[in-house]
Amino acid sequence: MTYRTRLTLMQRLKNSGDDKSWEEFNEIYRPFIYSIVRSMYVEAHLIDDLLQDVLVSVWKALPGFEYDPEKGRFSSWLATITINRVKSTQLKRSRQGARDHKAFEREDELDEGDLEKIVDREWASFLTKTAWENISEDLSPAMKSCFEGVIAGKKVREIGKDLDIPENTVSIYKKRVSVIMRREIHRLEEELN
Question: Which spans of this chain does the record mark as coiled coil (predicted)?
Answer without folding.
Answer: none
